[in-house]
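In line with agreed milestones, the collection of sequences with tokenised folds has grown. One record among many is set out beneath this paragraph:
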Amino acid sequence: MLGRGLSVLTFALLVACNTSKAPPPASLAQAAAPAQPARQTFGAPLGQSPTAALADVLKSPDKFAEQSVTVEGEVRRACTRKGCWMELSEAQDPSAPGCRVTFKDYGFFVPTDSAGSRARVEARVESKTLKPELVAHMESEGAKFPDKAADGSAREVRLVASGVEMWRD
């Protein structure tokens, strides 16, 4: 009798285990889905400034002078001392046009290892001539000025950012 009771109990346990509703296994496509890049923000949240292509701003800076725009590009370089500026470009290629981005009222900085990131920037467009001393200082931090004047000064299109959103692809 004990043998028959044990057989019934074993059969009942097997049936119960096989009929439980286990969650379906995750598909390979779900498991392999890439995570979205983490985005960091610096300064104020991006607002409602009109979007412009960085190439258009660099090509015709006077058209955008003293206006606030939102642009996106590659961070080609950044201040290696404290992150007080970065260079934004359409591409990492050193020959591609780019511009320096500073931060409104020196109120925030970006990581010193920001080069290689992508960034969206809300900023006021400026075009100024920099004194030779400032050009030399910025070059010591990694900036490049391909069109320097003979006296060491350089004309620069600059974005003064109120906010930056940055990520790595």
The first helix runs from residue 2 to 19. The two ends are 69 Å apart (CA to CA).
